[in-house]
Amino acid sequence: MATSQHFDTVLQNGRVIDPTNNIDGNFDVGIRHGKIASIAESIAPEMADDIIDVSGQIVMPGHIDTHAHLSSPFNSNVDRAYGHAMLVESGTTTALDLAGDPTAMVTGMIQRGAGLNVASLMGLVPHQTVSEDDPRPAVLRDAIADVKKRGGFGVKMLGGYHPFTPEASSDVITAANEQLAWVAFHVGTKDSGSDMTGLREVPGITGKGRLHVAHINSYTRGMIDQPHEEVQEALGMIEKMRSQWITEAYLAQANGTNGLCDENGDVVYNVAQNCLKARGYPTTDEGVKASLMDGYGSALVERGGRVIAVTGKEAVDIWEAASTDASLSYPVNPPTSAFSLATAKYDDGTFRVDAISTDGGSLPRNVAIERTMALVQFGALSMDEAVIKLSYTPSRMLGLLNKGHFTEGADADVTVINAGTGKASMSLVAGELIMLNGRAIGKGGTWLVLEEGKDAAAATGLPYEVVNLENSRLYENWN
Ligand SMILES: [Zn+2]
Fold first, then answer.
1. Are 82 and 302 in contact (CB under 8 A)?
2. Are residues 374 and 424 in the same domain?
3. What confidence tens digit (pLDDT) does each residue in 208-226 have?
């Protein structure tokens, strides 16, 4: 490639890994006008305005998180907007906000954004974000059209929290598919739970449609069978639905849930009930309290502009101050399930679970990069495969054709990883530094919207990009 032109920034002498272009070696990366302009063995220093020495570090296309939380329509003890900086600090450059509200997300981006590219889904919460309990198709059609106009990619069903009937769940998928909108499912219906019973229903609910099945690891926690049996069953279902589903799994042990109890003192949400059952606690307010006092459960709280997890009496106080409607976390994800889901492949070498996500953001478990690097260290994934699961495949899932690789002219979104610690040390979006040594230094962000959301995006004054989901893996060969 030409090295005779001028560059805004050069990342010098890192180990550049770009499986799309068969690159793995020490190179300089030249960036011009926010795009990758050259990958060369050596770029003359006088050609660059700014040279960043990344010797000994890994330089990969930016981490694209297909399951993050940056906004929320729910009452919560944490401000989701802190998630922008928290994700950026862990090395992420692009995120799909998986259930909140596009308007809330962009307000957070303006106030506390840290330079991320973000696409947003609206969570379907009866009587809050959608007018009916099991919304009729016409209601769903209007709700989805409205979300797209407000800058959202689509919707998410929150089956572990606000389950619909299987029929209404199916109607959500149909309505979203008809409008080429995103549709994600935290599985579970009024007939099942947020576990394997819920996942078993999803092929039927999907019908001939397309669906993002969220965090596969959440259904393989050993609630119904042994975790390894549940993993094998889940992977079998994913194979059957290979042309219709896209999937991700995260690698943190900690989950995220909500400790809401009703007037009888019973835990309301299925996910929280499962967390308590997993260790033999009663699914009541007393059970929640004991689990927090024992240090099994944690409550989330804001400290110094970030969200952290605390246990013991401090956690009980937070939960009680929120009248039990508080964000909690339990270490319920077995590492064996995480390992299997991250590494399982088809015979042709492609991964069964498409991506490694965080399910983080404002939940303090943004460990996708460091845990994936631990799998590389362990020999379970090659470095190429790590980049495929963290960046390339996520870019295809979302139809972000200019991301996930370093082809000349691609977006200069870059994550730099310290090869020793496995943690991200630096990241850039469109050629601008947004994180350095674990500190978020970016502001605002770029809003990823569909064509219908262009006006809403333009009205914010933020940079935005229009994405066509016809290019996404979700709608691959869809007609
Ligand atoms: Zn989530």
1. yes
2. no
3. 999 999 999 999 999 999 9
Mark whether 318 and 460 lie in a shared domain: no
Q: What is the mean pLDDT of each run of 10 residues along the chain (479 residues)?
A: 76 98 98 98 96 98 97 72 96 96 95 97 95 96 98 97 97 98 98 97 98 98 95 98 98 95 97 95 98 97 92 97 95 96 97 98 96 98 98 98 98 98 98 97 98 98 98 95
Q: Ligand 1 mean position to 447 CA, how many Å?
A: 20
Alpha-carbon dihedral angle through residues 286, 290, 296, 302, given to the nearest 10 degrees:
80
Tokens of 167: 């029929």
Distance CA 192, CA 187 (A): 9
For 57-94, the DSSP string reads EEEEEPEEEEEEE---SS--SS-GGGHHHHHHHTTEEE
pLDDT in tens, 41-52: 999 999 999 999
| 404 located within any domain | no
- Give yes or no: residues 436 and 459 share one domain: no
Q: Return the SS3 of 279.
A: coil
From ligand 1's centre to the CA of 453, what distance in Å?
23
| Pair (132, 190) in one structural domain | yes
The answer to whether residues 299 and 264 belong to one domain is yes
Task: Using the mean position of ligand 1's atoms as its centre, give its distance from the Cα of residue 13 in Å.
Answer: 37
Answer yes or no: do 163 and 127 share one domain: yes
Residue 433: its H or E element: strand 432-436
CA of 67 to the centre of ligand 1 (A): 6
